[in-house]
Amino acid sequence: MTVCVHGLGYIGLATAAHFANNGTEVIGFDVDEDVLERLSEGEPTVSEPDFETYVQDALEGNLELSRQPQPADVHLICVPTPYDEMNGEADLSYVKDAGRNVAGVLRPGDTVVLESTVPPGTTTGVLAPILSRGGLDVGDVVELGYTPETVMPGNTLSELRTNDRIVGGVDEASVSAIETLYEPLTSGEIHVAADPTTAEFVKLAQNAKRNVSIAYANTLALLAENYGVDVRSAISLANNHPRVDILNPGPGVGGHCLPVDPHFLSDGTGATELLDVASQVNDRMPEHVVRMLEDAVGTLHGKTVAVLGITYKGNVSDTRNSPGLEVANLLGDVTTEARTAVDGGWGESSVTIHDPRATDSRLQLVSLDAAVDSAHAVIFGAAHDEFADLDPVAIGSKMSGQTVVDPVDVIDAKRWADYGFDVRTI
Known about the structure:
Blueprint: E1 2-6, H1 10-21, E2 25-29, H2 33-40, H3 49-60, E3 63-66, E4 74-77, E5 83-84, E6 89-90, H4 93-103, E7 111-114, H5 122-132, E8 143-146, H6 156-162, E9 165-169, H7 172-182, E10 190-192, H8 196-227, H9 231-238, H10 273-283, H11 285-297, E11 304-308, H12 323-331, E12 350-354, H13 368-372, E13 377-380, H14 385-388, H15 392-398, E14 403-406, H16 413-418, E15 422-425
Parallel strand pairs: 1-2, 1-4, 2-3, 4-7, 7-8, 9-10, 11-12, 11-13, 13-14, 14-15
Antiparallel strand pairs: 5-6, 8-9
Helix pairs in contact: 1-3, 4-5, 8-10, 11-12
Domain UDP-glucose/GDP-mannose dehydrogenase C-terminal: 306-413
EC number: 1.1.1.336
Enzyme class: oxidoreductase
């Protein structure tokens, strides 16, 4: 069996490596020359050492890179589906392009699986018609279905191997073919959805639920401040109830899934009101973090602030939709590109950023020492392991001020306070 993976971003690369390292001949296709060049040099852009080694093993084995789509028994579509803010809808142009690429090499008996996160109805309403234009009937001579990826960056290999999979096929033959495809790759269960649209809906429902749960925790944090309550202590006590499981609050929601996926459920009826409010709560948390800092230092005029951690969560390299990066952007310019001033921003301050995991060359990343040198305050934007054991004495000796804002709960607040820091937390 030969598998062609269309799209070698984070998920596509993980999927391609997983199949290749389990004995399948894999063709990895991407339209981005830079991606292919890095991979051909054995340098995947990932921050997990074990995952990087896993990809390198695949490249040295069964994973072949291609600049053109190739015929294969199975085509896996793992392309991006960004949210179009202007039009208020998912941008399916990559899915459509991938569909046309697959259609150009499709043969009778082949199987096509969409893994990209998409609005319900995309597999049957968008992808299937494109594939059928080549003269091969979907569900007759070509199997088609939807199987969402659910791996979490930072724990990629473990979740690839153990997560349950959901399969939604256009007919029984498609379901059977896709089940057979994934069964050897996971110790988790394979769950069959009624159809591809149900499987698409389930993926969005999972991420929307988590987004709402985080918004609830952040709402409690805002309320707790007004009452002088330690919200994390209160949540810990509340979770002693057997039917309560409240998440911890933070500076917002980031990554390529949670901030975006709930919008894919919008159907124009207003039924997503709860989801919309949850997104609004999470979206305003970075500004709240800056206001916490402002409350601590009195004014940001002329102040220098070091933001440590600008990836969207701890121990990953991805900065997409990162709350920590948004905090930094509110405080000043952190990119190598010209940026329009943010209305309502804090243009009176300057900001330095440090992150041991981030790899985005457009960001003005500096060393830890350079970031905190003469800084009046530090904000922790991501809970990297490297930050948990930082020495408050060493950091304080380089700073001009003694203020720390830790919305991600990465440091020992009492320890830092004992060394004279004014520590603010969510």
